[in-house]
Amino acid sequence: MRTNKGFTLIELLIVIGIISVLVVVLALAILPWLSKSDENNTKTLLTTVNSTIGAHKGALTLEQFKKDAGQLAMKIDSQDEIAYAQMLLFYTAPSREVWEQSAKYGGTNWNPPVQPETLGEFINKDNASRLPHLVDAWGKPVVFSYDRASKTAYIYSFGPDMEKNTDDDLMMIVGETAVKTRAELKRKQ
Fold first, then answer.
1. What is the distance between the terminal CA atoms of the chain, rounded to a whole angstrom?
2. In the predicted model, is pLDDT for residue 1 greater than 60?
3. Could you state, in order of their start, the residue ranges of all structural domains in the chain?
4. What would the mean pLDDT of 76-83 be, rounded to a whole number?
5. C-alpha span between 69 and 101 (Å, rounded)
């Protein structure tokens, strides 16, 4: 007959083992949901950017962006992907500071198509010597491209794998309403 009250080491190890198994099962159930959340947030961002870029008058080129940026042109990144992400933010949700210093908006009342605060987590301001730029839910630049052959403009994210030009890239044709994967767009062609 045992007189000590309490748990034995074996009993404690069994309980810890059961709790560990439950944590693993819970993690496996939640991880796909978190990934889907990032995908949905990025799709919403692309749709928001598309609605403002689609209404933009004039050509969307880095050359035009540099003219519109005026004195801020020296803060445009030398990497095209980052520069395009800066361009998308400039035309979608410029901050008050960017608005007032740019050649395009300067001298007019600050009235961006989208308030920058609404895109908070998608704005990368890490480099103070450069203009901020749009990033997707995975922290990669949101990119703009124009296919001269098909005369089609795209806004896209590198998608969950965070690699360029793979089937999971999330893409939106400027002026259309649906975000599709690169694989879906390939099948459509």
1. 79
2. no
3. 35-188
4. 94
5. 8
- Length of the chain (residues): 189
pLDDT in tens, 89-145: 999 999 999 999 999 998 899 999 999 999 989 999 988 899 999 999 999 999 999
| Distance separating alpha carbons of residues 78 and 144, to the nearest angstrom | 15
Per-residue tokens: 89: 């933010």
Can you read off the two tokens belonging to residue 118? 């609404």
